[in-house]
């Protein structure tokens, strides 16, 4: 053992010590207030708004300064004017409403079918196997690829749009809800059974809230797919279905080489997307999973 | 409340000698049948077969028109014919080529953006503003602009694919980085890691579940965008660059136009097949080799 | 330790006057894992009388948790039977409320009070929300959590969560309260405090509790009667009295003697592989 010359340090036994009293600490200023400017700059919204403003200024300066051909890249102000003009003239609002209406119908129908499928999957192993197989197969299939078939079966109309929307929502929601249910902890399940909950009450009172983070995630993915599918489908087939939606407005503008109209349409698409994601879904999350401490 | 509180009943103690002999079976192997029925692939595969049988039987018995719903057998035959005789595989490859180009360039840009975002607060602000604005914008909506700027051709599709990949990947990588636990950060610093080595050795592995999630969402968006773009403009591209250069989406659309419905189904099969391979083979394997092995699987 | 004559006298008077609440007779329990069918307990029998603090004690793999789940109705025995007040146990029910070890046993989407009223309303204990609220508050005060009744579980410490779970179980006033290592995930100081509080609560109403633990010390403190189980599969080694032991006499020779006795009993035929085993399922 003692191959090295190193001496092993020994314990130093010293007197015990008990403090008689704890004195007040004198450490000077504990907290210094930040200046008003620093405080304002620390607000997230302020910084992001200024970045947004910066981007708009660069866009405007580039297009005006270099005298870019408006057919290729219109100025920001021109695009904004076009948006406001079309909103006020009543040209755009019905198109927006058309898109939103189709989206809501397709989304709700998809949710209902997903709920039925998942209930079946919860009740029986066959259902569970079926849903696993079907989602594995249909989730990777872009809903828009079904559009040619939908047109064949339902004709050129809203029904076809709804069909592809259902397809885009259904599998994402069903898959996430099903995995969410399966991952509900054994303890929570036993608690539910302990209070004699079975069947639908058990699903509603235990499984759904316990799996809500996963269900919400599925609903968000479903929304994102549905929104993308809808705009894509309208770009192509909106015109044939009568009034046409927002996607058709973009396509029409580009066909007429009114590029400022394309940008106006894109503004609107972004706006709706932001409202749904950052207002609707965000609020649902804040009121549920965030409040319950089930997320982050 | 009970008026009378019950009292403990004191009773004699008992000690038993535990016999080793008469246990019966403590643990027994499950039978082969029990195991087989419990195997996921077996059960799923039987469901697939069942679905095919139902499909074939329905179309055979109801006499539904091949133009509405073709038989499973004619779909399979069409798929075979398309693969052997009609260059379906070349079309699949055309699609994949564009997809890979867009996906890879998108990843590079997303990496640059999210690295900038963890280095400086300005970068982080720019990234979160851009993603908040552009992530909800369906990439396909940019296709008309892309056609205007880059003309009819695969360049335009690559441009829209970029857009569909960059934002989800950058957004998820960024939230992943932000969510790396303070403890793991401190451990990294403790061993003297800084700068790029710190990012590569600590942040990326620690945020990998989120990063992988971003990669998967990016793929899903890109795949959807590609098929949609090909459905719409595949024909125009095929016209300018020769018929064989159309992709999978175009195969589906042109066959629908020609009322070759079994071929439409065959094309959809191919779309599913590519999707299943990417999601269940490529991504699942990455997952198994990384976050599952590390026990970092979320949920 | 226990005076034989006194115990015998206790029995003769009791056996005539009181019926057991829970009668477990020759119960064998099995469960399936991916590869195996495991026998968790083999022909285990015991009787729990009213006011018992009955402890199931044993090392990992003795099937004590499985036994508790059997009593709760989550598992059906392959042989033998379990009767609660003379009625066969078939499925889970609110007459046997379970308190788990895991902190996630509280519903995260309900506040402390709502967690208790949820049990009261769904378990059929209370008819109106008002009645449930009142009863819930009564028990929240008992476990000293007033001020926290509107807090969501994720804001509470581990000890506080277990207190809510205990309050929820007691508010149901079940025939028997089943506790599955409820204090095992707590730190040592909190655990001791919780044991004291549980005993103080018991002093109020003498509720019947079936308590699972793998700590000999905890068994002696909490339990009035201890069922010692051997592992692989779980079989009864002994049934011992510990009603005289508590935190107050932990340093007494009786406490030490019984502790040593049980320790020797459990480890006399110790199988080394047990050390590697995890918790029994």
Task: Using the coordinates shown, work out and report the CATH topology of chain B.
Answer: MetI-like fold
Structural class of chain B: mainly alpha
- What number of structural domains do the residues of chain B give? 1
Number-wise, the strands of chain B total 2
> N-to-C terminal Cα separation of chain C, in Å?
35 Å
Q: Counting H and I runs of at least 4 residues, what is the number of helices of chain C? A: 8
Name of the CATH superfamily of the largest domain in chain C: P-loop containing nucleotide triphosphate hydrolases
Q: Beta-sheet strand percentage of chain C? A: 15-25%
Please write the CATH class name of chain B.
Mainly Alpha
Order of helices and strands of chain C: HEEEHEEEHHHEHEHEEH
Detailed description of the structure:
The complex is a heterotrimer of chains A (296), B (299) and C (281). Chain A contains 12 helices and no strands. With 296 residues, chain A is mainly α. Chain A has a domain at 89-290: MetI-like fold (Orthogonal Bundle). In chain A, helix 8 (186-194) packs antiparallel against helix 9 and helix 10 packs antiparallel against helix 12 (259-290). Chain B has helices spanning 32-38, 40-62, 72-85, 88-119, 121-134, 143-150, 154-178, 182-190, 195-206, 208-241, 248-257, 261-292, and strands spanning 14-15, 27-29. Chain B has 12 helices and 2 strands. A 6-stranded mixed sheet of chain C has the order 6-7-8-3-9-10, sandwiched between helices. In chain C, strands 2-1-4-5 form a 4-stranded antiparallel sheet, covered by helices on one side. Chain C starts with a helix and ends in a 14-residue tail after the last helix. Chains in contact: A-B, A-C, B-C. Chains A and C meet through helix 8 and helix 9 of A and strand 6 and helix 3 of C. Strand 2 of chain B pairs antiparallel with strand 2 of chain C.
């Amino acid at each position: 053992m003692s191959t090295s010359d190193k001496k092993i340090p020994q314990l130093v036994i010293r007197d015990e010590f008990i403090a008689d009293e704890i004195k007040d600490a004198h450490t000077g200023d504990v907290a210094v207030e930040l200046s008003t400017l620093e405080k304002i700059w620390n607000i997230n919204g302020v910084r992001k708004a200024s970045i947004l403003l910066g981007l708009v200024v660069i866009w405007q300066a580039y297009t005006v300064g270099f005298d870019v051909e408006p057919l290729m890249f219109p100025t920001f102000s021109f695009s904004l004017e076009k948006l406001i003009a079309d909103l006020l003239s009543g040209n755009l609002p019905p198109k927006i409403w058309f898109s939103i209406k189709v989206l809501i119908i397709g989304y709700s129908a998809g949710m209902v079918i997903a709920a039925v499928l998942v209930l079946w999957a919860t009740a029986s192993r066959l259902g569970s196997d079926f849903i696993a197989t079907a989602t594995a197969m249909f989730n990777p299939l872009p809903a828009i690829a079904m559009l040619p078939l939908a047109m064949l079966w339902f004709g050129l109309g809203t029904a076809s749009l709804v069909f592809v929307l259902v397809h885009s929502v259904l599998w994402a929601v069903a898959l996430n809800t099903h995995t969410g249910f399966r991952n509900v902890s054994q303890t929570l399940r036993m608690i539910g059974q302990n209070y004699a909950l079975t069947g639908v009450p058990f699903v509603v009172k235990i499984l759904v809230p316990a799996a809500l983070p996963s269900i919400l995630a599925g609903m968000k993915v479903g929304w994102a797919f549905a929104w993308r599918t809808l705009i894509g489908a309208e770009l192509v087939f909106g015109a044939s279905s009568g009034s046409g939606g927002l996607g058709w407005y973009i396509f029409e503008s580009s066909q007429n080489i009114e590029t400022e109209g394309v940008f106006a349409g894109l503004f609107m698409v972004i706006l709706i997307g932001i409202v749904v994601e950052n207002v609707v879904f965000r609020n649902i999350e804040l009121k549920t999973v965030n409040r319950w401490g089930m997320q982050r | 409340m009970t008026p009378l509180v019950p009292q403990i009943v004191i009773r004699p103690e008992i000690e038993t000698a535990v016999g080793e002999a008469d246990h019966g079976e403590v643990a027994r192997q499950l039978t082969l049948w029990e195991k087989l029925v419990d195997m996921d692939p077996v059960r799923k595969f039987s469901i697939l077969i069942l679905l095919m049988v139902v499909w074939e039987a329905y179309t055979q018995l109801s006499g539904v028109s091949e133009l509405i719903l073709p038989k499973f057998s004619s779909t399979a035959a069409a798929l075979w014919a398309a693969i052997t005789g009609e260059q379906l595989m070349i079309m699949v490859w055309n699609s994949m080529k564009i997809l890979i180009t867009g996906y890879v360039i998108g990843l590079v840009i997303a990496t640059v953006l999210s690295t900038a975002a963890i280095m400086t607060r300005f970068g982080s602000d720019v990234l979160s503003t851009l993603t908040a604005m552009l992530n909800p914008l369906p990439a396909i909506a940019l296709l008309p602009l892309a056609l205007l700027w880059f003309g009819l051709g695969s360049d335009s599709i690559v441009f829209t694919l970029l857009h569909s990949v960059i934002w989800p990947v950058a957004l998820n990588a960024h939230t992943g980085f932000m969510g790396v636990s303070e403890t793991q950060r401190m451990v990294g610093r403790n061993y003297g890691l800084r700068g790029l080595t710190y990012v590569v050795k600590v942040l990326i592995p620690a945020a990998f579940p989120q990063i992988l999630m971003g990669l998967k969402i990016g793929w899903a968006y890109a795949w959807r965008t590609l098929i949609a773009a090909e459905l719409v403009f595949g024909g125009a591209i095929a016209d300018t660059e020769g018929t064989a250069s159309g992709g999978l989406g175009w195969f589906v659309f042109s066959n629908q136009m020609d009322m070759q419905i079994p071929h439409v189904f065959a094309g959809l099969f191919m779309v599913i097949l590519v999707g299943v391979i990417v999601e269940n083979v490529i991504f699942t394997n990455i997952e198994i080799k990384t976050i599952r092995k590390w026990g970092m699987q979320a949920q | 330790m226990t005076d034989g004559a006194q115990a015998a006298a206790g029995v003769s008077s009791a056996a005539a006057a009181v019926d057991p609440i829970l009668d477990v007779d020759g119960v064998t329990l099995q469960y399936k894992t991916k590869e195996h069918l495991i026998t968790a307990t083999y022909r285990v029998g015991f009787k729990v009388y009213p006011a018992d603090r009955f402890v199931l004690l044993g090392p990992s793999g003795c099937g004590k948790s499985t036994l508790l789940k059997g009593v709760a109705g989550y598992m059906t025995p392959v042989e033998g039977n379990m009767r609660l007040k003379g009625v066969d146990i078939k499925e889970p029910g609110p007459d046997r409320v379970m308190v788990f070890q895991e902190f996630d046993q509280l519903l995260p989407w309900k506040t402390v009070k709502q967690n208790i009223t949820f049990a009261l309303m769904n378990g059929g204990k209370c008819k109106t929300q008002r009645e449930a609220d009142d009863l819930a508050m009564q028990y929240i005060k008992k476990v000293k959590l007033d001020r926290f009744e509107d807090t969501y579980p994720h804001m509470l410490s581990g000890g506080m969560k277990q207190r809510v779970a205990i309050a929820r179980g007691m508010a149901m006033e079940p025939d028997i309260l089943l506790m599955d290592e409820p204090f095992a995930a707590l730190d040592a100081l909190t655990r001791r405090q919780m044991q004291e509080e549980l005993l103080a609560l018991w002093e109020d109403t003498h509720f019947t509790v079936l308590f699972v633990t793998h700590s000999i010390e905890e068994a002696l403190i909490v339990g009035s009667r201890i069922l010692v189980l051997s592992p692989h599969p779980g079989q009864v080694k002994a049934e011992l009295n510990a009603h005289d032991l508590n935190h107050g006499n932990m340093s007494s020779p009786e406490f030490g003697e019984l502790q040593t006795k049980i320790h020797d009993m459990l480890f006399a035929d110790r199988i080394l592989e047990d050390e590697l085993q995890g918790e029994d399922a």
